[in-house]
Amino acid sequence: MKNIFLLLTFLLSFTGFAQKIKLENFQFVSYDINSSNKVEFNSYSTIDKNGKLNVYIDGYKGKTYYSYQLSENEIKAVNDLDKEDLESFVVKRHLDPNHGYVGSRNYISFQKNGKKNEICFILPFMNSEFLKILNSLEERIYSQQSTAEISKFNIDFNKLEKDILKQNQIDNYLPQKTLPPPPMSR
Fold it and tell me: Has this prediction a pTM greater than 0.90?
């Protein structure tokens, strides 16, 4: 009986010290804007205060939903996003000459102490610290483990689209997608 009590005490104290997400209403979106100025959602992710990552992906498997538990290190990394204003992670606002961009745009939004922090960005414009955090998250998001697949959860795509388009106007330095030039003929 004493051993069971000690084990329960140990487990409760361990879970009491578990890392929590300090950011509220965390959202991470990969998207494109079509020629009609409509947002096309590639993925949408949220993280709750306990580090539960819910993911929606519109990909090669169709529209699928997943849920993962972030590790202590992943939770710590996500919490590091609030060390500075998100704009401070931007290291450049223009592509190098003669370079195009064919990737998706991204949007991150969260609240801390009632203050909303959000940004639209592309990976080549962000610093290495930010990319390290994002790569850790994206490994989880795009792993698409069949054991983590869940039923559909609610996403307010209309509100999300409005938020993204509004922020996209603020972060107006993002380049348009461009296709590479055709091969030169001989």
Answer: no
What is the pLDDT at residue 98? 82
The number of beta carbons lying within 10 Å of the beta carbon of residue 45 is: 21
Which regions of the chain are under pLDDT 70? 1-18, 179-181, 186
Q: Which residues are bridge partners to 121 per DSSP?
A: 106
Cα distance between residue 45 and residue 28, in whole Å: 5
Ramachandran assignment for 131, one of left (phi > 0), alpha (psi -120 to 50 degrees), beta (any other): alpha
pLDDT of residue 84: 80
- The per-residue pLDDT for 184 is 72
Give CA–CA dist 55/155, Å, rounded: 10
Instruction: Please name the residues in contact with 10: beta carbons below 8 A apart, sequence gap of 6 or more.
Output: none
Q: Quote the CA–CA distance of 88 and 79 in Å, as a whole number.
A: 15
Which of 91, 21, 31, 87 has the alpha carbon at shortest distance from 51?
Answer: 21
